[in-house]
Amino acid sequence: MYGEPTADGWRAWDPGRSKLGGMFELGFQTGLSGGETVLYLGAASGTTVSHVADFAGPTYAVEFAPRPARDLVEAAEPRDRLFPLLKDARTPTRYAHVVESDVDAIVQDVATRGQAEVAVRNARFLADDGRLLLAIKARSEDVTAAPEAVFESALDRLREAYEILETRRLDRFHEDHLGVVATPK
Ligand SMILES: C[S@@+](CC[C@H](N)C(=O)[O-])C[C@H]1O[C@@H](n2cnc3c(N)ncnc32)[C@H](O)[C@@H]1O
């Protein structure tokens, strides 16, 4: 889909081009092993979410920018479990009628200001034992602040709706990003 090599019908997943790929490579306990229902926030043109939909169950992909969304729709054409939604992840009420409830995982990579707020607003979709797999980009919150301070403040907001299970920097693959695994409170 993005020039990645393939073997036996499977596409290589480049952790340098995907926060979730980086989280897998670093050994995060994602809880994803196949067949899960996934809500993916910040799908862009579908690089990562296409991999997710190749092994997961129903995968709802939210993206609000029309240009990448066009490629996302193309990526969804051959994938009958991938459902693109041209929506703003800050207003989940606009897609709540489409996304089934109790999803197993929310994957979030919106790289925009208010990343924790987006995760909190979408917590309503997660099953009680579901997982949030979140990448926080420090520079999207504040280009001048120290990344650690940005991450602490985002985690404080997240804790209002989630229990944090795991955090680790993704710098080996994505500079100044924090990977977070959390579950609803
Ligand atoms: C870093 S890119 C995502 C890359 C993608 N997750 C991947 O690995 O293939 C961030 C994307 O989030 C989208 N985005 C940012 N804020 C959003 C919002 N409020 N609602 C929906 N999409 C948003 C941007 O348009 C952009 O395409």
Automatic annotation (TrEMBL):
It is an enzyme of class 2 (transferase). S-adenosyl-L-methionine binds at T47, T48, E63, F64, D88, A89, D109, V110, A111, T112. It comes from the Archaea. SMART domains: Fibrillarin. GO terms for molecular function: histone H2AQ104 methyltransferase activity; RNA binding; rRNA methyltransferase activity. SUPFAM superfamilies: S-adenosyl-L-methionine-dependent methyltransferases (SSF53335). The keyword Methyltransferase applies. Keywords: Methyltransferase, RNA-binding, rRNA processing, Transferase, tRNA processing. GO terms for biological process: box C/D sno(s)RNA 3'-end processing; tRNA processing. Its EC number is 2.1.1.-. InterPro entries: Fibrillarin (IPR000692), Fibrillarin_CS (IPR020813), SAM-dependent_MTases_sf (IPR029063). Gene3D superfamilies: Vaccinia Virus protein VP39. Pfam families: Fibrillarin (PF01269). Interacts with nop5. Component of box C/D small ribonucleoprotein (sRNP) particles that contain rpl7ae, FlpA and nop5, plus a guide RNA. Involved in pre-rRNA and tRNA processing. Utilizes the methyl donor S-adenosyl-L-methionine to catalyze the site-specific 2'-hydroxyl methylation of ribose moieties in rRNA and tRNA. Site specificity is provided by a guide RNA that base pairs with the substrate. Methylation occurs at a characteristic distance from the sequence involved in base pairing with the guide RNA. Belongs to the methyltransferase superfamily. Fibrillarin family. HAMAP family: RNA_methyltransf_FlpA. This is Fibrillarin-like rRNA/tRNA 2'-O-methyltransferase.
